[in-house]
Design a protein that fits this description.
With 190 residues, chain A is of the alpha+beta class. Chain A contains 2 helices and 10 strands; from the N terminus they run αββββββββββα. The relative contact order of chain B is 0.10. The chains are: A alpha+beta (190), B mainly alpha (303).
C-alpha cells in the first residue's frame, strides 16, 4: 500500500504545490478590504436633513495611512433612521492652515448601504482638519473634526512575520526531538 | 421586507485573507479524502475513515466559517450586537465541532507530500517534546477552562468595544474564539490525534452541561441590563429596526438561550451515541457467546 501511495503522492505533489502557491499569491496580491471599525469621530451629527456618523482608521493615523468611513442617515417621521443612499459625500483633508484636498467617498452597497468610504492623502505629520460634506436631494451640509497624524510606522511587518516563521520552524525542529521519557498516558494513540 | 432581512440577503464580502486559507484547508482535505478512499478501496476495506458523512461534515464546517466571516452577518456585526452574537455562535458552536467530525488530522496528513507528511508525523511521535507539550495543554479540563475564559473574557465591555473599534483586535477575537472552541470540542468529538484516553460518554455530557451555567449568567446579565453595556452600539446608526437597548436584549438572549440549548442538544446527542455504542457492544457480546456455544456443542457432537 505504501509504495502505491507514495507513487500517487509523487504524481500529485506538483499539482498540490501549484494549488498552494496559487492560493498564497492570490491572497497576497489583493488589497485588504476596508472592513468597518475605527475610532468614532462624529455620531448623530445633524447636517441639514441628514444625520452624519464618521469613523477613522487606523488609530492613530500615520503618514500615508488615513481611512475615513462615513454613514449618512435620514430621519423618518417615526423618528427612526434609514440609510441615505445615492447622496454625494466628499471628505476634505486639510493640514491646519493649508489648502484642503477633496476626496469623493465611495458608496457601499448591500448590508453597508448608507456607508461611504474615503482614503485620505495625508502626507505630513501634525494636525489635519477633516471636513465631511454631504449633498443630496433633501439638502446639503457639512461637519468636521481634527485628527493628528503621526510619522509612518517604523515596524517592518515583513521582518516580524519572518521572525515568527523562524521561531515556529525552530520550535517545530526542537519539537521533533525525543524527550527520552515514555509518555504516562495510557490508551493514547496517534 | 424588514430591513434586517434585506441586509442579510445582500452580497457577501470578498476577503482573500479568509478565502485563501479556507480554500487551502478544503483542497487539502478533499485531496486526502480521495487518496485515503482510493487506498481503502484498493485493499477492499470499508470507508470508515474517509466516509461521505465525514467529508460532508468537514465541508459544512468550512462553509460555516465562510458564512460567519464573509456573509453580511459579519458586516452587520459592527452595527448590531444580535448579528455579532450570531456570528460567534456559528464560529464556536457549528464550525468547530463540524470540522472535528471530519477527522481532519489523518486525512490532511495523507494529502501532504511524503517529506512534509513525515515532518508533521515526526512531531507526534510518542516521546517528542511537541507531543508532550501539546498533551499537557490539551487536558480536557484545561480545554474547558480555556474556552470558558476566552468566551466570557471577550464579553468584558472594554475589551469587546476595543474589538469593535480596532480591526486587528477584532480579528484576534475571532481567531481566539475559534481556536478555543476547537480545543473545547476536541475531547467531545474525540478526533485524531488522540493524545489522551477517550473520555467516557457520561464525562463528555457533564463537560458540555458544565458550560451552561457560566454562559447563562453572562448571557442573562447582558439581556437583562437596563443600560447600554457596549457603548459602540449606542453610537452607530440605528437603521435595522432596533434601538440599542432592544439590540442588546436580543443579543444577550441569543448568547444565553441559543448557546445553552446547543450545548444541551450536543449532550443529548452524546447520550444517544453512548446508548447506540452500548447496544452495539451488547450485540457483539451476544454474537460472541452464541458463536462460542455453537463451537462447544459442535465439539460435543463430534465427540
Amino acid at each position: 500500500m505504501s509504495r502505491l501511495y507514495c507513487t500517487s503522492l509523487q504524481q500529485n505533489r506538483g499539482r498540490l504545490a501549484l494549488i498552494v502557491a496559487a492560493l498564497l499569491v492570490f491572497a497576497s496580491s489583493l488589497p485588504l478590504s476596508a472592513h468597518g471599525g475605527g475610532k468614532q469621530q462624529l455620531a448623530r451629527e445633524v447636517v441639514g436633513p441628514y444625520r452624519l456618523y464618521a469613523w477613522t482608521s487606523p488609530d492613530p493615523w500615520r503618514v500615508g495611512q488615513a481611512h475615513t468611513t462615513v454613514a449618512v442617515t435620514e430621519l423618518l417621521a417615526s423618528q427612526e433612521e434609514t440609510p441615505a443612499t445615492g447622496v454625494q459625500v466628499s471628505v476634505i483633508y486639510a493640514q491646519n492652515g493649508g489648502q484642503g484636498e477633496r476626496v469623493t467617498a465611495i458608496e457601499q452597497l448591500g448590508a453597508q448601504a448608507g456607508f461611504y468610504e474615503a482614503d485620505g492623502p495625508v502626507t505630513t505629520t501634525g494636525d489635519w482638519q477633516v471636513t465631511v460634506e454631504v449633498v443630496g436631494p433633501l439638502g446639503s451640509g457639512s461637519a468636521g473634526f481634527i485628527q493628528s497624524v503621526l510619522p509612518s510606522s517604523a515596524v517592518n511587518w515583513w521582518l516580524v512575520g519572518g521572525g515568527v516563521l523562524l521561531v515556529l520552524l525552530a520550535a517545530g525542529y526542537l519539537g521533533t526531538r525525543r524527550t527520552g521519557v515514555r509518555p504516562v498516558q495510557r490508551g493514547a494513540r496517534l | 421586507m424588514p430591513p434586517l432581512i434585506r441586509g442579510l440577503l445582500s452580497p457577501w464580502e470578498f476577503r482573500p485573507e479568509i478565502l485563501a486559507p479556507v480554500l487551502l484547508m478544503g483542497t487539502l482535505y478533499v485531496l486526502g479524502w480521495l487518496r485515503v478512499r482510493r487506498q481503502l478501496e484498493a485493499r477492499g476495506r470499508g470507508h470508515k475513515l474517509a466516509s461521505g458523512w465525514r467529508l460532508a461534515a468537514y465541508l459544512s464546517g468550512l462553509a460555516c466559517l465562510l458564512l460567519a466571516l464573509l456573509s453580511p452577518i459579519d458586516m452587520l456585526g459592527n452595527q448590531l450586537l444580535i448579528m455579532h452574537m450570531v456570528q460567534h455562535k456559528i464560529l464556536i458552536m457549528a464550525a468547530a465541532p463540524l470540522l472535528w467530525l471530519g477527522n481532519p488530522f489523518p486525512i490532511v496528513l495523507w494529502a501532504l507530500p511524503v517529506r512534509a507528511r513525515h515532518m508533521v508525523g515526526a512531531l507526534f511521535v510518542r516521546d517528542t517534546w511537541f507531543r508532550r507539550g501539546l498533551t499537557a495543554v490539551t487536558q480536557p479540563g484545561l480545554c474547558w477552562l480555556i474556552f470558558v475564559f476566552v468566551y466570557i473574557g471577550w464579553h468584558e465591555p472594554s475589551l469587546y468595544d476595543t474589538a469593535l473599534r480596532v480591526p486587528w483586535v477584532h480579528n484576534l477575537e475571532h481567531i481566539s474564539f475559534f481556536l478555543a472552541a476547537m480545543l473545547f470540542w476536541w475531547p467531545v468529538v474525540n478526533s485524531a490525534p488522540h493524545l489522551h484516553k477517550a473520555l467516557p460518554y457520561w464525562v463528555r455530557i457533564v463537560y458540555l452541561i458544565a458550560f451552561v451555567p457560566p454562559n447563562a449568567i453572562a448571557g442573562a446579565s447582558i439581556a437583562m441590563a437596563t443600560d447600554i453595556i457596549y457603548p459602540h452600539y449606542a453610537t452607530v446608526p440605528h437603521i435595522w429596526g432596533f434601538t440599542a437597548l432592544e439590540d442588546q436584549a436580543w443579543g444577550g438572549a441569543i448568547m444565553w438561550i441559543w448557546s445553552s440549548e446547543m450545548m444541551i442538544q450536543a449532550a443529548v446527542i452524546m447520550l444517544g451515541v453512548s446508548f447506540y455504542q452500548e447496544k452495539k457492544r451488547k450485540l457483539a457480546r451476544e454474537q460472541h457467546q452464541q458463536l462460542q456455544q455453537g463451537t462447544h456443542s459442535g465439539a460435543v457432537g463430534a465427540l
